[in-house]
Amino acid sequence: MQSKADKRLYNMIDVLREGNMR
After folding, report:
1. What is the gyration radius of the CA atoms in the chain, in angstroms?
2. How many contiguous H segments (helices) and E segments (strands) does the chain have?
3. Cα dihedral: 15, 13, 7, 2 (round 10)
4. Buried b (16+ CB within 10 A) or exposed e, 7-20
5. What is the structure's pLDDT at 16?
6. How many CB atoms lie within 10 A of CB 21?
7. Which DSSP category does 17 fall into?
8. What would the pLDDT profile of 1-22 be if each residue is shown by its tens digit?
9. C-alpha distances in angstroms, 16 versus 1, 4, 21?
């Protein structure tokens, strides 16, 4: 089950991950 808040959190994590990878 995926909620809208979960998806938003995932997006934020993705952005943070990309910033850390760079």
Report:
1. 10
2. 1, 0
3. 150
4. eeeeeeeeeeeeee
5. 95
6. 6
7. H
8. 678 999 999 999 999 999 987 7
9. 23, 19, 9
Predicted TM-score of the model (pTM): 0.43
Query: What helix, strand, coil percent values describe the chain, rounded to 5?
Result: 80, 0, 20
Q: Which residue do the tokens 């760079």 mark?
A: 22
**SS3 label, residue 15:** helix
Longest CA–CA span in the chain (Å) reads 31
